[in-house]
Amino acid sequence: MKFSTAVTALLAAPAVAFAPTTFGARRSALQMSAEPATEEKAFAKLPASVKPGVVTGKALNDLLDAAKEAEFAIPGVNIVGSASINACMEAAKIYGGPIMVTFSKGGGQFNAGRAADNTDDAASIAGCIAGALHVREVAKLYGVPVVLHTDHCQKAWLPWIDGLLAAGEEYYEKHGEPLFSSHMLDLSEETLEENIGICKEYMERMAKIDMLLEFELGITGGEEDGVDNTDVDSSRLYTQPEEVFYAYEQLSQVPNAAFTCAASFGNVHGVYAPGNVELKPVILHNSQEYISEKIGSDDPKPMKFVFHGGSGSSTEDIQYAIKAGVIKMNIDTDTQWAFWDGVRGYEAENHDYLQGQIGNPDGDDKPNKKYYDPRQFIRAGESAMAARLVKAAEDLNCVNVLN
């Protein structure tokens, strides 16, 4: 079957009608008969359900619970193609922890190719699917847990997520797990009731295939990949504990629900001069305390939070947010710069060998093919991006959390 035909088939796939009673519980008879009574641990410091490669369902929930308890956060990185995907997994292998590979709508379109027809989001959908399949094919070779995620989806972009969910439902029917680990809905521009009402509808659909939902409360400022909130009223950058509890209460009503919350506490996409961004991670601490009291829980951190707009944040703010239950921090601006800086450095170092196909300081008849081979400067970008992610993992306490 040609790829375009395969994508069409994925988009037409029906929703799975059966919801497992526990997260990740549904398995085929063949799988159940092959499962050992005692599951061997792949990583000494993580639950036995977490294995190298893409993690979904119960394994994903166990991984995030472990992160919350051990107070580390997973780097969530926006990618645009195989080079940035591979840089993510290379970094995770170096720092010894999990990684979240994140596809945006624009990143999916770029991965499919700018000339591809994007009518009805076809290229954005196909590019994300192709990227996810690439990750699934190679992730185990890096020996780390990988979370497959998609980023901000505003209300007008829901057809994009619908296409990806259809692909996930078909993948689940064949493999007993979804294609992606999780999807994010960013309906923060809508009223709280509409935001969570739509999220709840999607949670019901996603829970049937063991998927996790990330949702946003409040607005992340700045601009990223087509989402521009540079002129938003500053008061909307700060979420209130009552709003977080409302979302928690509503989504918890869905059987088999698993979700994380991107609650705004002054976050802004991009890097800005010191003093221009005022983060208030105490909002997350207050929200946890409020929810815990409301539901009468012994768990002081019942909500799993995620940190958007993390590029350029101080280590102190990051660490304080992690103590409030942040289990993932988004990184995009800093890794974009790192990739470019690697390419820039390669050109600067080899400038005289990159001015023509023939002729360099070693001789007028010397070929330069080995210098302008795209693999050379792309690899330089990958290496620089991986190095930046290792630094991010250090800030997130995510180093050597596997063994």
Provide a descriptive summary of the structure in words.
There is one protein chain. The chain has 403 residues and is α/β, with parallel strands linked by helices. The chain has 14 helices and 13 strands. It has helices spanning 3-11, 29-34, 57-70, 82-95, 105-112, 122-138, 158-175, 192-207, 241-251, 282-295, 315-323, 333-349, 369-372, 374-395; strands at 53-54, 74-79, 99-103, 145-150, 182-185, 212-217, 222-224, 227-229, 259-263, 305-307, 326-331, 358-360, 363-367. It has a six-stranded parallel sheet. A three-stranded parallel sheet has the order 5-6-9. Strand 10, helix 11 (315-323) and strand 11 form a beta-alpha-beta unit. Helix 4 (82-95) packs across helix 14 (374-395), helix 6 runs parallel beside helix 7 and helix 9 packs across helix 10. It starts with a helix and ends in an 8-residue tail after the last helix. Residues 1-22, 24-35, 226-234 and 269-276 have low confidence and may be disordered.
